[in-house]
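I need you to check the entry underneath: sequence plus fold tokens. Let me know what the token row says about the fold.

>
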Amino acid sequence: MKATIEDKVQTRIPTKHGEFILHYYSNSLDDKEHVAFVKGEVAGKDNVPVRIHSECFTGDVLGSRRCDCGEQLDMALDLINQTGFGVLIYMRQEGRGIGLLKKLQAYNLQDQGLDTVDANIKLGHLADEREYDIAALILNSLRVHSIALITNNPQKIDEMTKLGIQVNDRIPIETHIHLDNLGYLKTKVERMRHILKMPDKK
């Protein structure tokens, strides 16, 4: 069955990053509440800055330093606000798609020495189970012509291109590296092909 979405509600949300319009979508694939945070006029535009951000309760809400998610969320919204237009799609696929419970279990495995990839695999999951069909449908619903994707992940560019989204450019989004997230970011680079500048080994 081909996936469909419906833009159910749009409402104005003033934030520390400026004013956005929040679009609430229902869809035929799951019962999750995927949303788009839209700044300015994006319909028919090229090179629209777009961040496809997967939910991270621990990072986005609690400010966890184990990952770079919360910082990326803030940076992306600030970049979109500074540009004057853009879209942040907030996908409800916690823990690279394995859910909050399994993500927290994976954290415990990481504390025992596994990296993020091996922890997911030990729990019976793939390294990354996220899907982007709904994100592509949201961009089509917003009538975005082409995008500059805010990401360090080449796989995300590949996935969006396969789904028919014209990705003209990549906008890097590099956060602060510290002891709490160093291993996490190193695994992203070495095992998931993310494009990040890692500190030189001493």
Remarks:
- The mean pLDDT is 93.
- Helices lie at 57-61, 69-83, 100-111, 116-122, 133-141, 154-162, 182-192.
- The first helix runs from residue 57 to 61.
- The radius of gyration is 17 Å.
